[in-house]
Design goal:
Rossmann fold; 9-stranded mixed β-sheet; 6-stranded mixed β-sheet; 17 strands; globular
Length: 376
Amino acid sequence: MQNIKHKILVLSGKGGVGKSTIAANLALWLTTKGKNVGLLDIDIHGPSIPKLLNLEDKSPTGTPEQITPIPYNDTLKVMSIGFLLPDENNPVIWRGPMKHNLIKQFVSNVTWGNLDYLVVDCPPGTGDEPLSIAQLIPSVDGAIIVTTPQQLAILDVKKCITFCRRLNLHVLGIIENMAGFVCPNCGKKTDIFSGNGGQQLATNLNIPFLGQIPLDPYLVLACDTGKPIIKSDTKTPAMRAMQNAFEPLLREHEKTSANKEVQEMRIAIPITDGKLSAHFGHCQQFAVIDADPDTKTITNTEMFTPPAHEPGALPRWLGGLCVNTIIAGGMGQRAQQLFAQNNIDIVVGAPDETPEQLVENYLSGQLQTGQNICDH
């Protein structure tokens, strides 16, 4: 995963809204912009990506420890449980732990190589699979939420957004699919579902609205034949709408990448009662402080409440907040190893001071550290 620059989850609160179609076309659109892309399908019970990309007869090679994904072309690699099933009529009848283990294997053992983007197609809802992928992939850029206009879908999408916020998963934007039917002959648009629920929801929750994708006969045909519409020579309404919806994502990530070249230090400090917490994993809050390494000054301070304490949760969470340095009083060896894997520097044995004092001393080279008080 550390060889992948950007990771995007495609989520939906409800099934049948075209989430896999959006994920497949987004991945392919990114390749047209010169990006190396991976597409991971973790919809274990209803994998659609092999059909959408006409890869149904393909099987991955390698070993269980090093799985080689399926090449769609020179710049897109694909992995799905659909490639591992004996036939398309074979259901996967698994409980949660087995699904989690498979997703963990896909994250850990698939040899993606160096990628600009990994697009993850998640199943609908807020259950095992989305929860597993959000916790297993470090430094996720965020999630795209796909919905349809009607209120029945919006009710479930609200739950999906709450899910993201509870996991501190950034919502990159909402795409409203099936937003009216555009006649291929006269070009007139007819609303099939009433209202514009996705757009209104984005406004109400202060989330970027990426756009509306109309129902399009060409899009239906493209899905059924495994020829993604984003690669079509015909500029259909759905194709143009997708391009317009995807463009802001690329602009934002290019802006983020440019900023990272002159990136400020982002330092996390566990806090209890306003000062450094003695035990890293059981603090009340985290102070996340941005600092300019050139001028050695603090530019911003934010306070965050950490997720529930469980093994591996804090490295994933702090990585998602783009933290690159941690100042702590004590930290266990296993936690230090996990942070090192996420390229986060650790300073332990810091004194009982306010976060601002600690950062100022650290920037000036005057931070006095003692013994790591955590030995587990």
